[in-house]
Amino acid sequence: MSGSLWADAQKYDEANRAPEFDMSELECLFSTALPTSDHSGSGDRVGGRRASLGSKVERVHLVDLRRAHTCEIMLTKVKMPLPDVVSAVLALDDSILDVDQVENLIKFCPTKEDMELLKFFLEMMKVPRVESKLRVFSFKIQFASQVSDLRNNLNIVNEASREVRESVKLRRIMQTILSLGNALNQGTARGSAIGFRLDSLLKLVDTRARNNKMTLMHYLCKVLADKLPELLDFDKDLPHLEAGSKIQLKTLAEEMQSISKGLGKVEQELIASENDGPVSEGFRKILKGFLNTAEADARSLTSLYSEVGRNADALALYFGEDPARCPYEQVVTTLVNFMTIFKRVHQENCKQAEFERKKAEKEAEREKMKVSPLKKESEQPLMSAIRSKIG
Questions:
Q1: Rounded Cα distance, 231 and 217, in Å
Q2: Closest C-alpha among 154, 150, 172 to residue 328
Q3: CA nearest 140: which of 303, 268, 293?
Q4: What is the pLDDT of residues 5-54, one digit of tens each?
Q5: Among 31, 88, 232, 355, which lies 20 to 30 A Cα-Cα from 371?
Q6: Structure confidence by residue, pLDDT tens digits, 74-100
Q7: What phi and psi values does residue 254 have, to the nearest 5 degrees?
Q8: What 3-state DSSP class applies to 230?
């Protein structure tokens, strides 16, 4: 518990302690309503988006497969080397090729599109390890946005963790919930708990009063609205919490690994291209400059990623939880759900209070209308007596 909000709670003065509860009201509402089945395990606690450099490439076919197969069958019938076929065509030698064979050759002459495609592949074949270079090129194009997105997500996790641990309002609400649980369990072994499991926050809305008209969450919001209204907007202390709940640390780790592997491929190609000669001279120069900058960015990201890991663990420890059993994702998701339920229940309380107010006003108006006729009837004899005396 050392370093957690429960340990820190022992240090705060009277002004920061939880409010006093109306025990008669609390007992009347919840004395027999505590959950007995679902919550038995609480003990003494209170109810890559981008293709990697190693991804598989789709095979490109220069010629339609059906056409290529038919052409292959035709060539097997010619039964001579291709250079000899070309020589016979240029020599117009009908002793080597008959009319049927010539007609078949006409059918399979390369089209303009075929020749353009072949020219492209012939040019690409002049570049040593062209596939590796293209993969490096793709990585380079995406690197800046990949680093920016990852850095942004890492910062969101850091900010969400910091905001939760620094929120005085959230801390006081947690202390109030603890006090509420101890008040409900007064006189039992669970009535002097020093903390509670984080998942108990979501069980407050499941614990219903004896009259079945409100839950423990409704009661908590009512107490806070009456005695500590300044805590009701605690969500304003946590602007990054919802965004942080949508980020998975596993995904961040995969992004980090993708960047690391990509830089490894860049370095390998840079070393290999030293033997390419003049064809890769400009490529090497540009790639070397990119690698120097990219490695600096990667070192910065690695440092930030390590910081995020420490802060994510610290967030679980802040609530007295084991990071291995209650990881960052579970903590922030629980808090977001609690925040959502809290706001909804508070709004329900406000609507109910407004309904009760209007109901009381209507009742008072009806009582007033009942009294008014009686008053007029009592005034009639008095006015008649006064008039008779005057006459």
A1: 15
A2: 154
A3: 293
A4: 777 666 655 445 667 767 676 667 776 544 444 444 444 444 444 544 54
A5: 355
A6: 777 777 888 998 999 999 998 888 998
A7: -65, -40
A8: helix
Q: Tokens 């907007």 appear where? A: 233
Q: How sure is the predictor about 350, in pLDDT bands with cuts at 50, 70 and 90?
A: very high
Phi-psi region of 128 (alpha: psi -120 to 50; beta: other; left: phi over 0): beta
The residues, ordered by sequence, that sit 6+ positions from 311 with a Cβ below 8 Å of its Cβ are 157, 158, 161, 162
> Are 290 and 266 spatial neighbours (Cβ–Cβ below 8 Å)?
yes
Q: Is the four-CA dihedral 198, 202, 204, 208 of positive or negative sign?
A: negative
Q: Which of 63, 71, 108, 72 is nearest to 89 (CA)?
A: 108
| Among candidate residues 293, 262, 252, 52, the one with its CA nearest the CA of residue 151 | 252
DSSP code at position 18: P
Q: List the structure tokens of 191.
A: 């009535």
Strand, helix or coil for residue 58: coil
Output the furthest CA–CA distance in the chain (Å, rounded). Answer: 156
Identify the three-state secondary structure at position 189: coil
Which residue type does 191 have?
Answer: G
Tokens of 271: 């070393």
Distances 2 to 101, 171, 357 between C-alpha atoms, Å: 91, 15, 47
DSSP annotation string for 280-348: GHHHHHHHHHHHHHHHHHHHHHHHHHHHHHHHHHHHHHHTT--TTTS-HHHHHHHHHHHHHHHHHHHHH
For 256, how many CA atoms within 13 A lie in the half-sphere containing its CB?
A: 19
Write the Ramachandran bin of 111: left for phi over 0, alpha for psi from -120 to 50, otherwise beta: beta
